[in-house]
Fold this sequence. Notes:
Helix content: over 70%
Oligomer: single chain
Shape: elongated
Strand order of the largest sheet: 2-3-1-6
CATH class of the largest domain: Alpha Beta
Structural class: alpha+beta
Radius of gyration: 33 Å
Amino acid sequence: MISIKKLIERTGENLVPAALDSYRSVLTAMGESGMQACPAVGSTLRQNLIQLQAALSAEPTPGLLQQTGQKVEAELIQWGSGAADYFKQRTGEVKEVMMILARTAELTGERDQRYSCQFQEFTGRLEAMADLHDLALIRDSLVKSAIDLRACATAMAEESQQSVARLREDVRGYQARLDDAERLAGQDPLTGLDNRRGVESSIEYRMGQKKAFSIMLLDLNGFKLLNDTCGHQAADEVLKQFTAELKSVFRSGDVVGRWGGDEFIIVVNAGLQAAGAHIERISRWVFGDYTIRVGDTSRKVAVSAAIGAAEWQAGDSLRTLLDRADAAMYRDKRAGAQSKA
């Protein structure tokens, strides 16, 4: 009986960490699924679920678990509403284009019917000439018919040009809205940087070009503690300030993106050696003290990050390249933790 009791106790002790790990994995999978299903609003869902995942302590209380569950439910409801609005908007845009084409076809049909009546009138006038014997009357009738026919053809051509011009203008406006929607779908709403979807598109484009490029992954140090002590608003302010400084040390052709939460990614059109020089510049010019508002007071916080770089090699998949950079970043994070210890 004692052995059975100890076994149950040991099983119970192991059950809580296992359940927490499973819960965290589920939150990660939900965020990734939200990104794939609707990237336009999935980025925010993923980032918020990452924050909730990080907030789960090693020994959570029932109250914390209940609160986390309620927050997850609220995030999913908000994501579902945002996704529905997004797809409704896209459906509305497609419907608008169909209406434009339908109106154009309707106007063309009305125009053709109107001019068809005029052509029938010309035909009747020409048939009536067969009964005329006076050459002067025939000549006058022919001249009048020719003038009317020319005016009709000119008006028809002008209306066609106007219809085509209107159609082109409508389609251009629709294309501009589509371009804006695509741009916003690939943009992080907080920092204005490319989001995960946008960066992945840039990487895949470079892979298709088969030219040398490297990526750098950055994971801010101690960001969870900043969130817990200063609040989300102050943490967001740090992210925006850090973004501005990070962008300033790269060229316009490089891609600086927010990978999610407190992670950033940079794509540079250069090899690993040049990426190392960029890392030096980041350490020198971007890391340091940032001033934020906490309540009614100003406070300085030290910001740094673990960085891992990887150069694309022929045959690499997107996942392979990211895994190498991710492994290098965690080596840097472990080295930093050991140096502090």
